[in-house]
Amino acid sequence: MTVTRRLPEWFKVPMPGGPNYMSLREQFRSEELHTVCEEAQCPNIGDCWERGTATFMILGDICTRACAYCAVTTGVPQGLDLQEPIRLAETVERLGLRYVVITSVNRDDLPDGGAFIFAQCVRQIHRRVPDCKVELLIPDYQGNWDALAATIDAGPDTLNHNIETVRRVFKRVRPQGEYDQSLELLRRVKEMSPGAVTKSGMMVGLGETWDEIVETMQDLRSVDCDLLTIGQYLRPSRKHAPIAKWYTPAEFDELRQEGEALGFHHVASGPLVRSSYHADEQHEAATLGGLTLNPV
Question: Which end of the chain is more exposed for a tag (fewer CB within 10 A), N or C?
Answer without folding.
Answer: N
